């Protein structure tokens, strides 16, 4: 009697994931998040915030490719929205390997300064087809029988040249990445990836079911008031190029002087300087048994500041050292 077998079939393309870590596993200045912004083709877009650039800072969306040879790739199309005019734009990288020896592998990458990449603020579409030029590669254990020069970032070829090369034509694609960043200077405004298709098959851009917000770790910071507490002070400052997303604010007071405890974005003299920057305003007075307040929001649906914008604190009346602010937040 034969033993029954079960064959599990996978689709050609895996679910998209987000990346922004450097090769050594440390945080880069970039960040990638799933957001419901600029949604032309579905419910979600991949927001790539490349941040302040020091050569290896980036945000990316990528997906696995199961069993497709490089020479079977006919097209990659992606639609993206630039948040402002920059010198570079989201580019595509094709990760390939030798099925006979998986230690032989390469990343074939489109230059992020390619003439056909739109870099102005607004919507753009890019089509990578066999005739597309501007592709360089960095490899590991690539045989010398290849007719293409790699590992320098400057030898540019068409996709067809890779597909017809004696070495690369038999290579298999492991994953495809749309990445934004890897520049040497300045700060890049975020770009949104709204649509990706490979060989005219759409890649569904959406987070996993368990997704809330992908970002840096949750942080907590406590700061006590000092006299004169009516003078605005900075509560927390984000890393360069990052935004602060507030998850909760707790205020406490043991003062018998009633005062409005103000928490707000930016550096205005008080919470009314720019009312749209308000986070929380709670009236506390120990005499009235209202010595504490708490405001909290769901992660992903909470107040968020602009890039590099601080969170400020103050009280409307001087409570000297009798008050405190505790903020829970993450940076994105």
Mind explaining what this structure looks like?
It is built from one helix and 22 strands. The protein is elongated. It has one helix spanning 159-164; strands spanning 17-19, 31-35, 45-49, 51-52, 58-64, 76-82, 91-98, 101-110, 122-128, 135-140, 172-181, 187-188, 191-198, 201-203, 219-224, 233-236, 244-253, 259-265, 278-284, 292-296, 311-315, 323-331. The chain folds into two domains: 17-203, Sandwich (Jelly Rolls); 219-331, Jelly Rolls, CATH 2.60.120. The strands form five sheets. The chain has a six-stranded antiparallel sheet with strand order 1-5-11-7-8-10, with no helix packed on it. Strands 2, 3, 6, 9, 13 and 14 form a six-stranded antiparallel sheet that branches. A four-stranded antiparallel sheet has the order 15-22-17-20, with no helix packed on it. The longest helix has 6 residues, at 159-164. Strand 7 and strand 8 (101-110) form a beta hairpin.
Q: Provide the CATH architecture of the largest domain.
A: Sandwich
- Indicate the structural class: mainly beta
Strand order of the largest sheet: 1-5-11-7-8-10
Contiguous helical run count: 1
Number of domains: 2
What is the CATH domain class of the largest domain?
Mainly Beta
Report low-confidence residues grouped into runs of 5 or more: 5-9
What string, H for helix and E for strand, traces the elements in order? EEEEEEEEEEHEEEEEEEEEEEE
Work out the strand percent.
35-45%
Mean pLDDT: 90
Task: Label the overall shape.
Answer: elongated
Number of strands: 22
At the third CATH level, what is the topology name of the largest domain? Jelly Rolls
End-to-end distance, in Å? 59 Å
**What is the assembly state of the chains in this entry?**
single chain
